[in-house]
Design brief:
- By secondary structure, the protein is α+β, with helices and mostly antiparallel strands.
- It has a domain at 1-39.
- It has helices at residues 3-14, 18-37, 83-101; strands at 42-44, 48-55, 58-62, 67-71, 74-81.
- The strands form 2 sheets. A 3-stranded antiparallel beta sheet has the order 1-2-5. The chain has a two-stranded antiparallel sheet with strand order 3-4.
- Strand 3 and strand 4 form a beta hairpin.
- The radius of gyration is 20 Å and the shape is extended.
- The two termini are 29 Å apart.
- The mean pLDDT is 90.
């Protein structure tokens, strides 16, 4: 699913215009990015957490020059889904896979 598909689904379900949904979604993404850039995590109960994870410094290799180089410590954005979210995805995918395999889901 692409962002345009998501906007269309939300607009259909909520009867809000696609433009308003798109603006809201873009604003949400912008706020998450800004919060993480400022070192503040974003927690959405029942959905998950957007966090900045610290990667420790390590030694890497430049293959072209065949020399070792130090990669400094840095932060990367990450998403950690909530337990409710994970459980729902697991349950639905197990049911879908059983249906595809022709196994009874009763």
């Amino acid at each position: 699913m692409r962002k345009a598909d998501l906007v269309a689904r939300i607009a259909d379900k909520t009867k809000i215009s696609k433009v308003d949904v798109l603006v809201t979604l873009e604003t949400f993404f912008k706020e998450v990015k800004e919060s993480l850039a400022e070192g503040e995590n974003v927690y959405v109960r029942g959905f998950g957490s957007f966090v900045a994870k610290k990667r420790a410094k390590k030694i890497g290799r430049n293959i072209k020059k065949n020399q070792a180089m130090e990669i400094p410590a840095h932060y990367i954005p990450a998403f950690k889904p909530a337990k409710v979210f994970v459980d729902k995805v697991k349950k639905n995918l197990v049911v879908e896979n059983k249906k595809k395999a022709g196994v009874s889901t009763k």
